[in-house]
Amino acid sequence: MYTEKGNLALVWRETGGGAEILRVYSDMPDVCIPEEITGMKVVSIGAYCFSEANRVSDYINNTEENLPAANHLCEFCGNNARSISLPDTIERIGNNAFYNCRKMVSLEAGASLKETGSDIFMNCTSFTKLHLRHRADTPGGLKHIVGRLCTHLDVYFYDNGKVHAMLVFPEYTDSYDEIAPAHIFGRNITGEGFRARQCFDGDIPGFRQYDAIFDKASAEESINIIYKMALGRLMYPFMLEDAPKAKYEKYIKIHQSVIMEILAEERDIEALYFICRHKYADAASIGNAAAKASQAGWGEGAASLLKWKYEFIENARKSRYEF
User: pTM of the prediction?
Assistant: First the structure.
């Protein structure tokens, strides 16, 4: 069965408790899956749903000309997919659901997700952002998602439409070496991303555990990776205690020059403003970041940085000595 809704066509079948999406067709790189189809709640994403390998015929009896691909819509899969928003009703994601979605950058989901199949993010080489429409102290599918992924992932939690918490799960590698003639293998795990993925209390992120791994992570990982862990916790300090907050602040201040240049290159105006406003960077670092932004042709960023340099650092210093 399939249903067309505007610029979307959904191939689906009825399953226990609702509808399962088998294939999606669209003329856009960003799709939002609806919560209902013909009055039936959408509860599942089928195996290989967004992958390049078309498995629709495994589930339904339909001819090629009857599928919506014959219309103006294209298969939403593989390199055609940039971002996907799943409804709050989704409970399960099937095996290899996003296989070879190499240009998919972000995924959005609700709190109902409880089950993920194997290899769902295989070859999703651009997938770096997960947006969760629920509070960080609410059980959800994050543990299942990061457990299926060993690459870097930035996770944002939303409360009433605004980000209220952020966690960063760095990349890690997992390999096995043969250590004896009897084919005994030793497991080698490299990278703090694995330890970060163990920081859960049931299906809820364990923020104290997460904050506790920072000392080791900051000593072993590069600034380009670890600064996001520190900055994310400071910008969205959900359940952040004073001791780890001081560690994060110290790290940002020590590495301020490199971090400011990275943020300028990424044109992250929100993070740059946060650092300037809280005086985690001095005048020299802000000035260097402004120069970096100018060289890259980002005039808005350069102007903003120079403004904040005066407003938060130079003018504040001047006011301190005025009587």
Answer: 0.89
